[in-house]
User: Fold these one by one.
Assistant:
Number 1:
Amino acid sequence: MNNSNIQNIFVIAHTDHGKTTLVESLVSNRTIKKEEDSDITTMGSLFHYDLPDSVPLPLGLDSRRFLLNLIDTPTVDIGCRLKESDDALVVVDVVEGVCVSGQAMLQLERINSVLFINKMDRLILELQLDSEDAYQTINRIVETINVSIQLGGNGSNSKQKRIIDPVVGNVAFGSGVQGWAFTLENWAALYETKLGVPKEKLLRRLWGNNFFDDVNKKWVSNRVSEDGRTLKRGFCFLIYEPLRDIILAANEKNSEKLTKQLYYININLTNAELEQTSRKELICTVMKRFLLINNCIISMVVKHLLLPSPSPHNNII
Ligand SMILES: Nc1nc2c(ncn2[C@@H]2O[C@H](COP(=O)(O)OP(=O)(O)O)[C@@H](O)[C@H]2O)c(=O)[nH]1
Ligand SMILES: [Mg+2]
């Protein structure tokens, strides 16, 4: 193995935002049967990732294999452990938002980072936000992190800073405790197969001010149409609402509703699984099968932190 492909990734977050749970979830889910085409294996908190053969080997690398060491970094240690050249997986509790210590740390340390917006289950089950409010809550986190990134990292020794952007794919959303996570690309790929719309075209519609006018059948940038109708954002009706419907159906143990939702995403549950005694377990079973956290988080880290200078919209899988 080429040693240059081994990398420490610091998992950083404000206390209680879910670092330890995330790393434990990634480690424990290695026992889940791998998909046929999965290229991720794990060993302790070390994660192997093999770049798919379809992706040209980037210049300067002589191995397709990456070894990631995810370091669950206690908040008190961050200041002394991180160097300018380090890479980090930043975890933010979507309900609490970015806490001051987290922002200060990003400014100070000038690190490159990807973001995991954690505890999405709380947004759906506890706060029960409508989809536009959920979008605004998440977007505030993305904007706050970007302000921090831009304030730091301009020193001559620092790497070229990359802002985080869900469309680029360096932001993932999910629930560490439930074992699921996604980037916009997961949904774009799903709709590409379902609707025949090219993934790249769809990706841009899944974030930001992209609203669908279903009367005139076109995408527009204003939330209110010329004739006064309130339109829905791409993120809301193509991601958040389907996600919420699946989680709520599992939480209600409504097998009729759930089976219908799962049919669309090609997931079958056995009767035994549907009748699982605990609602929590049922949500985890369904969501892990749909969007297993390992696939999303590990490939995001490799693509956006480990591969040399990924260009925006550089899709390696
Ligand atoms: N609802 C919910 N709770 C979570 C999630 N991830 C972690 N937690 C809970 O948040 C608390 C703090 O998590 P922990 O991993 O210890 O945070 P750390 O201090 O950043 O390591 C624990 O009670 C976890 O069970 C999540 O995705 N959803
Ligand atoms: Mg911890």
Number 2:
Amino acid sequence: MDPVGEIYDDLPLPPYVSAEDVVFALRAISVHTPEQRPDGQRCRKDQAAHPCRLHRWGRHVLQKRGLTGGQIQTLLTGGTVVLR
Ligand SMILES: [Zn+2]
């Protein structure tokens, strides 16, 4: 496997993650979903290797907001999470 996915410095993160940033990050993650290709997983939206830049940015924003992977998954599937 190639060592992608750990580079977060390509898109700047907001200093404080607002509710708007959370909505935007969720939208980015739900649009930039992986698609199985012969050469591996690629972004459905921009064909970059998954997770692409925007997908990683969205995840990182939500993590910075204090959301766990499980909570992110709940939000992506239409569930409700009480934000701290
Ligand atoms: Zn993408």
Number 3:
Amino acid sequence: MIGDDTHVRNNRTRWNEISDDYQRFNAPQIRGQAFTGDITWGVWGIPESRLNVLGHVVGLDVLEMGCGGSQWSTALARRGAHPVGLDLSERQLHHSRRLQRETGLEFPLVQASAEEVPFAAGSFDIVFADHGAFSFADPYRAIPEAARILRPGGLLAFGHVSPIYEISIPDGAEAAGDRLVGDYFGLRLISDTDGLVSANLPYGAWIRLFRESGFVVEDLVEPRPETGADATHRDNAEEAWARRWPSECIWKVRRV
Ligand SMILES: C[S@@+](CC[C@H](N)C(=O)[O-])C[C@H]1O[C@@H](n2cnc3c(N)ncnc32)[C@H](O)[C@@H]1O
């Protein structure tokens, strides 16, 4: 699978199939931010105001990689940024257009893969995603693309499932157990039970890839839910897991 774009074609088909359900059941957790501008990260909904990952965005050119229904980009437009929403799936972009009609906030929407984006070098101040394209694209293609289109000093920030969580999911299960069961050093493109191909790397490989692509690592945020966190479709066992171990991580790396 690695070295061709089978995973990209697979994921485009699959996201088109599951997009309506995703927007119905998962996206409501972040829908509010499109109307208030109050952004929250990850499945545990930790506020940007606490994590300070993106920081000041007024007047900045911001690309959301894997924007889905564009709830994030809409919130950033509300906060004074100039967002562009990019996604692989035409059905997800259909939901983005629907939200634009609802809010009256318009910005460019582009259909492409994060592995090959149709923008000139140095087009953006921030490239970011929250469980977006960097969770599904081959990191060895997507990270150098992000570096290419960022201006010097630009920020790449993205949240995704942690490598530890990734290797704790037993075969056929949908959530992590309390044992390491997967092959840590084999992480790259992973066939999931829901038919998607997701992406991840060992921590050291992420850091080497960032450095080789021209980034310096500023932070690796490991969001930890409060007890009783309000997260869609997450039960008490998953919350308990995420209070013991890092279920997600947010990379914050800067273009040299
Ligand atoms: C889990 S959804 C998250 C969307 C949005 N960030 C949210 O929180 O609702 C992941 C998105 O990434 C998109 N995606 C997957 N692979 C991609 C790729 N190679 N390039 C661009 N987008 C991709 C999917 O179509 C989907 O809309």
Number 4:
Amino acid sequence: MDQDGNESRLGARAVIDASGTWGLPNPAGSDGFPALGESKASASISYRIPDDVSEFAGSHVVVVGAGHSATHAVLRLSELARRSPGTRVTWVLRRGSATNVFGGGLGDELPERAALGSRARKMIDEGLVNLVTGFRVAEFRQDSKSLTIVAEDGAAVTDVAHVFALTGFRPDTEMLREVRTDLDPAFDAVAGIASEIDPNIHSCGSVSATGAKQLAQPEHGFFIVGVKSYGRAPTFLALTGYEQVRSVTAHLAGDHEAAARNELVLPGTGVCGGSGDFDDNAGSCCAAPAPALVQIGLRPVTVG
Ligand SMILES: Cc1cc2nc3c(=O)[nH]c(=O)nc-3n(C[C@H](O)[C@H](O)[C@H](O)COP(=O)(O)OP(=O)(O)OC[C@H]3O[C@@H](n4cnc5c(N)ncnc54)[C@H](O)[C@@H]3O)c2cc1C
């Protein structure tokens, strides 16, 4: 559509979808569905990091989420709590341990990313933030005065004025309905890179499959790149996107040697574990929790 609102079609030999995930934040419900009452309470829930938090001075604000966005929000709000007596900040984590949330410390090759976690830990130690772990958001109950957040096990965070649900984003595939795509059914990432970025297995930042070959879709000449190619996986860095685009454009220009080359070197995070099993176990780096043998249809066997 042009500036005057006139629509037209544009022919192209190839299309690269780099439209990101920013438009589709995840809900607060811990199972990926909106929690009960979440849409009714929408006036009291934000899904982006706040720029200006001054309006929350003197109130109880809750941050839901374990990623860098949530950590940013917690830091902004805890500075407000320091300046404005009566402000309370509660940080709700689905996972049972906050260990990985505080980052990789000296093991993180991006110092500013590492600093985020250590600053958050300091705010908790100073009593400016109340950390609640193992809280799986199930329901929002709004009354005339405030909001109550209820977990699946019945635990509750009460007297809440506002919630920042910073639980990640997912790609918008609506415009691709008529286009043949190959996306991972579990987390919407491009299937060709999905096994390397599965947040249930690892999030240490390492990923090698990232070029035109892996990103090409069944629709001829169509590629998905950037954070959208990662689907709901939370570990994307711009560096990966630059490498993806370098490879795809080399492929389109006919330089297949350059397209096949992998020039990506990612800084290690020093921690691993995005979601899923890691919510219960702060697992070891870049490996799924050890497999357990499950026998079906047999008598229980004592191991030991
Ligand atoms: C809060 C936050 C902080 C982050 N910090 C970092 C960081 O410090 N370092 C880092 O490497 N990564 C960071 N990331 C990850 C970051 O998302 C990516 O690195 C980078 O922005 C992704 O680039 P992208 O081009 O794939 O998507 P985006 O930057 O999201 O760009 C997508 C663009 O497509 C446009 N668009 C969407 N739909 C359409 C459409 N239908 N038609 C046309 N245009 C459309 C959007 O308006 C947008 O401009 C951060 C992410 C978040 C959410």
